């Protein structure tokens, strides 16, 4: 069976008249014979149909080789008139060959044009993680590294949100990206977005190395810092990185008085709660504007007993310097066995009590005896200290304190076991 290449030129040209431009272009690149034979047929059909899709495809195919002579010939014949030159570079980024980008830039196409969504070729390179495209574009003087799209996003914000570590490094190391003053519509900078999305921790490290980046800035609503976002979303590695920075306040409050430890406790992230509680600046019993505390929120969730215990332990340690049953009783003031004066014992609220300067209690004056003719003398009186003087009173005096002590011990044992 004869092959296509064995057909005579006349028959090949007749067949090409019924083919689409991209099919002719594929045959055009098959061999030198078809290249010279079909070139005129290809161009004739392409410029007759003025097809946007086929014209772009031919440009990209020739630019990828790169066949500079053929590309130049097509541009001179006016192929850019129907292939939308303002977005040709955007298509080159999607096409995936850096040779296409370099070839089109070589013939003078604008490097910083925007598409209908306000995106530049660099923005698309940041979105799709095309590091080789980003290197070419960032090196050009006519490219605005801080250009915003319709969503108010810059290439650096896009790369940080998408998690493209290499793109972030290219943009940061270029020295052209504004780290301090560039944020999205919600006031979130690149560190906010990296922490929010939980992207590769190396991105956060790259950003933290830039000393001109404010690490404790809140968004435009005065709501969250990067640490708050990471704590709320459960990104423990990023929380640890941020806590290692001196500029980061581990107990920062938003406009609703919500702290990172409260967000982590409400989300059930025990590891993050422990990291935060290990910092002495963190208040384990902080309250938001509704009065909720980390302990209250953690206790309301099932399966978070570890967080509850962590918070209880830190609250007892920080708020009660004299926890019940956990301290050795201080010696009572007064003479000791070695005839020395015992030191005054401390009191949590009153401080040390000095028995030497404490005024003694006033002496009790005994009541005068009743008159001889008093009716009371006809009744045999018992001493007031005797239980028989008032049996019900004696029982109450004996039973009530015991009952109170037992109830207190039971409640405290439940508190310890909870």
Automatic annotation (TrEMBL):
Keyword Signal: no
Origin species: Choiromyces venosus 120613-1
Residue ranges constituting the F-box domain according to the UniProt record: 1-50
Signal peptide residues on this chain, from the entry's feature table: none
EC number: 2.3.1.225
ANK repeat positions: 84-116, 117-150, 186-220
Sorted UniProt keywords: ANK repeat, Membrane, Repeat, Transmembrane, Transmembrane helix
PROSITE patterns: ANK_REP_REGION, ANK_REPEAT, FBOX
UniProt-listed Gene3D superfamilies: Ankyrin repeat-containing domain
Residue ranges of the TM segments: 393-412
Stated name of the protein: protein S-acyltransferase
Cited InterPro entries: Ankyrin_rpt, Ankyrin_rpt-contain_sf, F-box-like_dom_sf, F-box_dom
Classification via Pfam families: Ank, Ank_2, F-box-like
Enzyme class: transferase
SUPFAM superfamilies with a match to the protein in the record: Ankyrin repeat, F-box domain
Lineage: Eukaryota, Fungi, Dikarya, Ascomycota, Pezizomycotina
PANTHER family: ANK_REP_REGION DOMAIN-CONTAINING PROTEIN-RELATED, PALMITOYLTRANSFERASE HIP14
